[in-house]
Design goal:
Layout lengths: L6 H19 L3 H7 L6 H8 L8 H11 L3 H7 L11 H4 L2 H5 L6 H20 L4
Pfam families: HTH_3
GO molecular function: DNA binding
Protein name: Helix-turn-helix domain-containing protein
Length: about 130
């Protein structure tokens, strides 16, 4: 799917992709609802699969990624939230690893990472880089 794809085509293609993931796992709509602790209702998932909902929330995509065993980034790309790896310029690729590496951090780890990020940015500013 490309970023220039019309919303209707994108939602239909994305819905078909979600339906294929569910079928590959052998799950019913209700089983997905249960597996997501009712985060994704069977009615909502049905609407997604039939292209009636064009862009589910990132929270929904995260829940579905967990159940279907696919990467969250893949679902975010296919839903049109982020550009695909191949379409990103070199500059756009920097910093993406950190975005998807924040799961399961303790509060201390998160604070340490933010402190270190601040340090790196201050070094860059001192060198005159934007």
């Amino acid at each position: 799917m490309t970023p220039n794809m019309p919303d209707k085509s994108r939602s239909s293609a994305f819905g078909a992709y979600l339906a294929s993931l569910r079928a590959a796992k052998g799950l019913t709509l209700r089983e997905v609802e249960e597996a997501t602790d009712k985060e994704v209702s069977n009615a909502y998932l049905s609407q997604l699969e039939h292209g009636k909902i064009s862009k589910p929330s990132p929270n929904i995509l995260y829940s579905l990624a967990e159940v279907y065993g696919v990467s969250y980034e893949t679902l975010m790309e296919r839903a049109g939230y982020i550009t695909t790896q191949q379409q990103r310029t070199t500059d756009e690729k920097h910093g993406r690893a950190a975005t998807f590496a924040i799961d399961n951090l303790t509060a201390e780890e998160e604070t340490a990472l933010l402190d270190y990020l601040g340090y790196l940015r201050s070094k860059r500013l001192n060198k005159g880089e934007a």
